[in-house]
Amino acid sequence: MDGDKNKIVTTAARTGERPDPSTWNQNDLLSYKLAILSRLFERGSEAQLARRYELWLTDCRLLGHLLAKSPRTVRDLAEDMVMDKAPISRSASRLVEKGMLTREADPADGRSAVFNLTVEGRKLASTIMSNARVGQNRFLNLLKPEDCWVLMDAIDVLLTFAKTTQPKARDPEDE
User: Fold this and answer.
1) In the chain, what are the domain boundaries?
2) What class has domain 30-166?
C-alpha cells in the first residue's frame, strides 16, 4: 500500500497541458473541490478540538492568530481570517470567559476592544498549533515532496488572486 500512496492523488495522466474545464461538471470545478476539501478537513478538526479542548474551530483559529500577532481587534481578526466580525466576537467572548484572552479598550479607538492572550491562552495556543502541525504532516505525507511545494505555491497564488480580485463580503456592522 505504501508504494501506492501517491497514486491516490493522481486521477489522470499528466499531458503537460492545462486541464480544459469546458466539459467539467459541478464535481470537477476547482472551487467546488476546494470547498469540499475544506469542509471535510474542518469537520475532522472541529470534532478533535471539541473533544480535546472543548473549543470550536473558530476559537482555535483565533488563538492561533493571536499567537502570531497580538493584541488585535475583532475587525483586524475578521480581516485576517476572512470572516464576519460576529462569529469572531462570539469566539473572543468565549475565550475571555475561559481565561484564555484579555479584553481591553483599544487605545486607538475607544469604541473597539483589543484582545490579547493570557499566559494560559498562550500555552494552549502553542499546544494547539503544535498538534495542527502534526496533522499537516499527515496530509503532506500523502504527496511526493515536490508536489507538496507545488501545492503550497499554487494555494498561495490562488489566495493572492482571490484576496485582490474578489469583492469583500458585506458586513452589516459596517453600514
Assistant:
1) 30-166
2) mainly alpha
